Amino acid sequence: MSPWTGFAPPVASRAAGALVVALGLGACDRTPEAGLLDAVHARVPERVEVHEIASGTTFGQILWARGLEPSDHHNLLLAFGEQANPRRIRSGTEVHMRWRGDPERLARVEVGLDRDRTVHLERAGGGWRSSTVTIATTTDTLLAAGEIRSSLWTAVVSLAELESAPSADRDRVVARLDRVFQWQIDFSRQLRVGDSFRFAFERERRPDGSMRTGRLLAAELVNRGRSLYAIWFRPEGDDSGDWYDLEGQSVRRAFLKKPLRLAYISSRFTNRRFHPILRTWRAHRGVDYAADSGSPVEATGKGVIARREVSDSYGRFIDVRHANGYLTRYAHLRAWASGTAVASSVAQGQVIGYVGMTGMATGPHLHYEMHQGGRPIDPLAVDLPAGDPVPSADRERWRRERDKRLDLLLRLIGPETFRVQQAATGLNGGGR
Ligand SMILES: [Zn+2]
After folding, report:
1. How far is the CA of 89 from the centre of ligand 1 (A)?
2. What domains lie within the chain, and their CATH numbers?
3. pLDDT digits 0-9 by tens, 251-274
4. Ligand 1 centroid vs 367 CA: distance in angstroms?
């Protein structure tokens, strides 16, 4: 138990670059009122200094500069080391140092590890005691519905419900919707003005309102009068969960449609093609995607890295082996991503490299191949194998959870309401 729990939370004010906190001493039930204290008896029992770790300096150097005794300095770092590596604190991290007593002594130190965790160090006996405190988050469910006027992205980011959310969080919501529906609809070709959507998105939020984790619980996309559904469910023994249609069929396929988010096809799979560098007719047993150099390349399916090499024609390339005899290859990379050593497991959508023009390439692009049973196949023509449906043992629970999640959607206005509103306000597709 902390000997300092009798203090009210400090009230901070920033002055001359350093944060200085003055606090009255008192029991829990007595809130000190600074203005009423007799000047003679008023004392400042705690002084807080805030230091920022600049790049090139360490936590240890900051402590050293504050003139701690060598043994004290050593013990403090030792206690910190039980929670995190003191040499690996990112620059910009704030260190709060609380000084107390007369003569003044360092009593407490707080170091923010990241947005969610803070290491607390407290003087205990002759040494220091450390603990890691995780910030409290709140969970809410964002319910929203909208109509598409130009793109799904524009429609979602302009939702009033997302107005106060940081833009990175809005992007995460759109990316998730896009990911979930990518196999059922081609967003660039099939989406129409007047299509609508509604979704329930569960968020774990920090005190500043930003999202720590988020999960799309349920979504409906109405495309030309046809409803597409994606309901999240976690089968027993599965740690990430998946999305299913109302019948419990997976909306996911074993492979993503394309290994790049923003790219267009510059060359398709063919058995005969004129090669621009070799100036001969050669087969092109893959699909080329033109993209900016450095664009992240994603593994289209879950698997294991089978090869990671450099060759004259492919340049820097990487092969991923998947279940059922499938293999995918990604070539002309500028660089491989971390965590892609041979034999590493990769998840679907995991970034494995970056677009480049190594090997035989006239410009930055990704050459993507898919093989089955050792033979190259056309990734655009293959009927991508479906993800597993809800297991039969989980059906009962699935039906209950599906109905609850679907209910969240049905509470929102649906496509019929949009049409009525549109007629009433005389909207005619001119945008918001
Ligand atoms: Zn190619």
Report:
1. 43
2. 12-134 (3.10.450.350), 142-252+392-425 (3.10.450.350), 264-377 (2.70.70.10)
3. 989 898 889 987 788 888 887 766
4. 4
